[in-house]
Protein 1
Amino acid sequence: MPRRAARRVTLALIGIALLTATGCGVAESGNTDRGQVLFTSKCASCHALKDAGSTGALQGPDLDAAFAQARASGMDSDTVAGVVKAQVENPRPSTNNPSVSMPANLVTGDDLEDVASYVASVAGVPGIKGPQLPNDPGATVFANNQCSGCHTLKAAGASGTTGPDLDKVIPGMSAAEVKQSIVDPSAKIAPGYADVMPKNFAQLISPQELNDLVNFLLKYSGSQGGGKQG
């Protein structure tokens, strides 16, 4: 995020913090582990956050950049949690531009408490590096397409549970089978899971990136995390 844009976001966050006291105790009351899973599945496609391994395509504010400056200005974790809650509960009006709007009711109730607690515990905190991905082009494709929001893959630091555990289901699969599971996920649904995987990855991921992703999954899936991480 450009410095000037990050500064504008930071000033907005501080302004919200001064107007609301909704964060009192939130940072301690939510489940941060559950919040991380929810953030990855609900928020990571728009927001960058190192701990979650999300790049967010910078559609929404880079939460590390924004909250790092806010923390430097004296904002504590409870206040950060309150700001997160306030922005989710009262998002900007929805438009066709995701950089200036956010869907209403993205997370609510206990889910929102957990997400706010998680973000407050990691956003802008010095020293957080996030998942250390293998030095493999497919790892970048996996991260950029938010696969960790739904799947577990130890090598990528992913712990999603909406979809199958890739460390368990991919070993033994052929490259063609892995590719089909990505571009035509409805063709074969894993027992116990709903048919909720996006159907447009063939359009979103280039042929080269798709090959990189397939090779990455074949190489690194497995109970030992797939091999040596870079």
Note: The first strand starts at residue 152 and ends at 153.
Protein 2
Amino acid sequence: MNKILVICGPTATGKTALAAQLAKELNGELISADSRQCYRGNDLETNKERPDVPIWLYDVVDPGEAFSVSHWVKLAREAIADIQKRGKLPIAVGGTGLYINALIHPLETIDIPPDKTLRDKKLTLSELQNMVSRGGMNDSDWNNPRRLIRKIEIGKFPERLSLKQRQSFHALIIGLTAPIPVLYKRIDAHLKERRNAGMKEQPINEHAIARKQLTWFKKQKNIQWFDCTSPTLLDDVLYLIRHVQKD
């Protein structure tokens, strides 16, 4: 099973900086797991840091172009294969939990593409319901056009990848966090720096984004959490990694 390192957590916790330090210590390369940083442009708005180590999956799609978790996982798999082929450690870093989860725990439907023709038809709820059997769908899913469309798309591919056929990774997951008041101060300081550097005003509430990220990651299992403000953060994380490597 392929081994990778994951650095995750809410915005403004210094994930990329830590990942870059780890890449130098462990002969690694980074893979961005951030849904906004995949798009070209808006570097300040999406907080694209440019560390002095290789980082994959920045700027891989044009703004407005369709880009799903399936697209990201495909590119991440390719990046991991390239990094490992050269004897280096892949380090996925970012705050988009859905991307990270889909990479580590691949769904059997992850590679089933959307049906653009079906989606462009803008069918009514009743029309969609007539195209699919309800099966075990609960009331919420049965009355959700987006989920009905996805069920129709999946139904067109009866032979899906088995768990053995799906590429999976053995990941050590490091989570960075801080108390909410501390996190908000870090976010505000980050925003001020980016505005001073010329960032356009944006309506995104980064406090709310951080709260959502924390809620997502706290529900996930097997994350080793560290306080991002600890002066011994790098040493503590390296100790854990090397301890795990011995097992």
Note: Residues 69-85 form the longest helix (17 residues).
Protein 3
Amino acid sequence: MKIIRKSCARGAHEAEGLTVVIDVFRAFTCAPLFFHFGAQRVILNADPDKVLDLKSKNPEFILVGEIDEIPIKGADLGNSPSEIIRKGEACFKGKTVVHRTTAGVTGVASAYDKADEIVLGSFVMARAVAEYIIKKDPDRVTLVAMGDRAQKKSPEDEVCADYMEHLLAGRPYNHVKGFKAIVFQQTAQKFIRGTEHYLPREDPLFCLQYDLFDFVLTVKRLGDQLEVLKNVP
């Protein structure tokens, strides 16, 4: 198994083989929560106008989305795991969720046609993802750390890719060093400062939990939509 590291929007376009699209803050920490709280279906769509159109035509859908971290006007929720946890099962059970984000979801859309398979990546699913990949034993695995707004590298996504590489190939990894590399940098500090209501202080607390879920989220095109499918390794 050859492990390839890529970053940001360009990396998503270049991804090949089995591709893990990593977005720790916050898209693919949110995604497993939808299923945890009983969502029946999760649709990924990178186009803000299209997700609003879907919501307009299907008002029962739950629209979760942001543009450059700011919640989409007309969405039910922003892209916040703590907000999703507060809403809980009462909001999501049996529902269809439409999810749009600037980095993670757009990265999936960019990588989908070239990659052999797409897996969503974050700390909360990392071990399950690694077990899934090891069982499949593909020739190539691309780890795409989507970064800050998909434009520049971010420590949380790069460290998550480090952790996955450790799980897949035994690469040295130190939890404390990884935590230090993340929490004192801008991508975490903007939450910790608590100056913007759409960047809750609680979000990094959940996003930096390791291996909480024992399932893997893959992406398939069903009809004209990219849908997230829950898999158990």
Note: The mean pLDDT is 97.
Protein 4
Amino acid sequence: MAEKSGKVKADRKRYSKKEMQAHVLEVLRLLDEEYGADDIIYLSHENPWQLLIAVILSAQCTDARVNMVTPSLFREFPDIRAFAEADVEKLEEAIHSIGFFHAKARNIIGCCRKLLEDFGGEVPDTMDELLTLPGVGRKTANVILGNIYRKPSIVVDTHVKRISKKLGFTEETEPEKVEYALMEILPKGHWIRYNMQIITLGRTVCTARKPDCTHCFLREECPSREA
């Protein structure tokens, strides 16, 4: 590397292009070394529509909690039409242990109705089409594009936004702007797995409340590390 990245300045605007490229590649190398280079998603699913519903349910909720609910949920509602025709109160009861279940139930029913009406019961494979579905924002759409259709995409959640800034990858704070900033500096081949690697890091080491900088494998590459 042109410069030991532990000395790289936290202000991304002061990086040279060469320094930023070296810093990014070293971080990605260390992430792959620690977590592997496979693209992994922790939400259990067997097909695209199940993943779509699981991601809608996962908003402001842990993947573990969603995975506790979806097995029985998908038995009770075995296809898109069953969800589209579901009684909202019955669906709310099935997902009541998940936060914001009132809104999520309405969104899931609306989403599945639109899938049937506009997309022949298939989950669409473009950002613009996915964003027409109730309950689907860019984060959900990117999960589908990346993990179902293998289209390079960057999912920005709270962990990705927070840790990407700590690493000096971006100074943006709005999720969509963070997404575009990361698209500029991350190799496309790493876009999909970057999210899951950073989520894992954020849940286990670089937590929001108490980051464990001492034991972080990215310590020497993080300009925001604690002394």
Note: Residues 5-37+153-221 form a domain with the Endonuclease Iii, domain 2 fold (CATH 1.10.1670.10).
